[in-house]
Amino acid sequence: xxxxxxxxxxxxxxxxxxxxxxxxxxxxxxxxxxxxxxxxxxxxxxxxxxxxxxxxxxxxxxxxxxxxxxxxxxxxxxxxxxxxxxxxxxxxxxxxxxxxxxxxxxxxxxxxxxxxxxxxxxxxxxxxxxxxxxxxxxxxxxxxxxxxxxxxxxxxxxxxxxxxxxxxxxxxxxxxxxxxxxxxxxxxxxxxxxxxxxxxxxxxxxxxxxxxxxxxxxxxxxxxxxxxxxxxxxxxxxxxxxxxxxxxxxxxxxxxxxxxxxxxxxxxxxxxxxxxxxxxxxxxxxxxxxxxxxxxxxxxxxxxxxxxxxxxxxxxxxxxxxxxxxxxxxxxxxxxxxxxxxxxxxxxxxxxxxxxxxxxxxxxxxxxxxxxxxxxxxxxxxxxxxxxxxxxxxxxxxxxxxxxxxxxxxxxxxxxxxxxxxxxxxxxxxxxxxxxxxxxxxxxxxxxxxxxxxxxxxxxxxxxxxxxxxxxxxxxxxxxxxxxxxxxxxxxxxxxxxxxxxxxxxxxxxxxxxxxxxxxxxxxxxxxxxxxxxxxxxxxxxxxxxxxxxxxxxxxxxxxxxxxxxxxxxxxxxxxxxxxxxxxxxxxxxxxxxxxxxxxxxxxxxxxxxxxxxxxxxxxxxxxxxxxxxxxxxxxxxxxxxxxxxxxxxxxxxxxxxxxxxxxxxxxxxxxxxxxxxxxxxxxxxxxxxxxxxxxxxxxxxxxxxxxxxxxxxxxxxxxxxxxxxxxxxxxxxxxxxxxxxxxxxxxxxxxxxxxx
Length: 757
Prior knowledge:
Blueprint: H1 2-18, H2 20-39, H3 48-63, H4 71-99, H5 118-125, H6 136-150, H7 157-184, H8 188-196, H9 200-229, H10 231-246, H11 249-254, E1 268-274, E2 285-286, E3 289-290, H12 293-301, E4 303-305, E5 308-309, H13 316-326, H14 336-339, H15 348-353, E6 358-363, H16 372-379, E7 383-386, E8 396-397, E9 400-401, H17 403-420, E10 424-429, E11 450-456, E12 461-467, H18 474-498, E13 505-511, H19 519-527, E14 528-529, E15 534-535, H20 548-553, E16 559-563, E17 571-573, E18 577-578, H21 582-590, E19 613-614, E20 620-621, E21 625-628, E22 633-636, H22 649-652, H23 679-684, H24 693-715, H25 718-730
Parallel strand pairs: 1-10, 1-13, 4-17, 5-18, 6-7, 6-10
Antiparallel strand pairs: 2-3, 4-16, 8-9, 11-12, 13-16, 14-15, 19-20, 20-21, 21-22
Helix pairs in contact: 2-3, 2-4, 2-6, 2-9, 3-7, 3-9, 4-6, 8-9, 10-24, 10-25, 17-18
């Protein structure tokens, strides 16, 4: 046995000595993949598994270099593979910074949207770390340079061929052996997530960069093939899903009607698509003044849903438009706007058209962006007004026509529509508050410094002091942009009111997604000390970290329903709500119903039950927890107040702005630990036993089911193709007076009383 081991060791030693170029290629690729995990998923997953997978994949890829006769030929092959790997690694690093997920071949079709946002990519998304991977190119070139000097010619072509064959076989076998060892460490959950692909962070963190990207390529190709041959399987799953949910329809119907049923029937609908506005902005004060006074006024006077999440995926704004209109999830592969716009969806616009409404949309960008000319027609809009054809471009900020000019020009168009149609539904898509936000700097004088007073012993007077605070930061530019958008919104509603267009209308406003501001910006925001003009670091006791939970929980956006007529009393709704819940909620108020909706009328959920918001990556949030399916961890939300609205200097002094400096108080600002938001407090809320495994598994299974059914509807145009047969089995459960909902949260979702399950 020892002889055999020594023999293998000797062969391995000789192989390494003879093939430094191949081994360098493997090492470089594995190191870059490791760096990608460090910069993205960090060390949230087992480090041995992805390392084994990356080594095995690169050995198998590198083995084909021996198909080339010369060292130069092998170098060309390996350098080509090296560059391809580099593109994938750097691309995934950049992509993760914005979407907290990884690239997929299914996204190639969305590449046409990049030119319009390249400025955002370079200014707001790409970082210096994304250039680190470039070391791979000169490193391999240097190794090749030294290999050339040591290359010797063999006696004959036959011997060269034999040696290349042996090297190929040895490399491939080593790769397969390591791959086998890796496979032996995997669990059933690992294989399931690899196959489904939508939990990409988990897949890359477990299977490594190269197995993930290979699997994704196969999965993307398979999904296209399966689009042709997989209909029967998905149809069966679709029918089973409805049959199972149908059992709960009578219970749901009994609780369907509520105080808001039909309350806005016959009203015109003004939908405001508020670009990139996050909810925490509405609770933000700068030097004691509201950042968003007009939004806050709407919230105080209307129905304000404070824990609302957008549920968007890689299609960002277009995903939100789709989910808002259809109560379906975004597509897991590709985007509805680009890949699946030509399906027949049950949308709010179509149902209102059936009730006699004229439906239209307006946007200050071109009609081709996110394929809106086609998408909006598919959703059921009668007309899409866009800057290419319908607006005078008299002021541009960022990606297109400024919001103030857009709204100013929109009012006369609405007046014409109102004169011609008894009822109408209009969606106004805002644009100025779009990443990277920096263009707002040339027109905004909004003050984002921190002001206080300090005694001057020489003059005997208290003098105003202005600490820079957010000036020169991306978050500062975002706040300026949000404030501008709020001003534009206030101007629009005032102009509409002046023309009498709010008299018989409701305003529905939603934030389409978060601002994609990075965690480092929030860490600066939370740890800035204006009195000493310093920023705390991890070594400081008062430092507040922004982990994934703090970050993701803060991604919620505003949702407001407002009416000048006062049909309902102002109310703040704290129950968690998602974009897919808007259509059923509005449908109950306006008098229509979509039996294919995956969301719920928020006012029909019993008091003893929780709602659940499912995200496209499998994460979910309830009133009790935020669950990260990538890491299989949850964060306890009970009594949690958003760190972004409580811990920064502007928020601490929001009720006592422009304070008079006191060295014994302000000089020690943020010196001691913040017990509510420090790292230990955050850690104590993670997997703290507030819920049990049954609670997690029930919602996780429900999330998977909802995602799969939504994908089936999207990919296979299921509503159209199954309508006739489907009607026969469930149509009897619906009538014009019914609000029966087939889709109910799991039974485990009874509202918690604070007792761990």
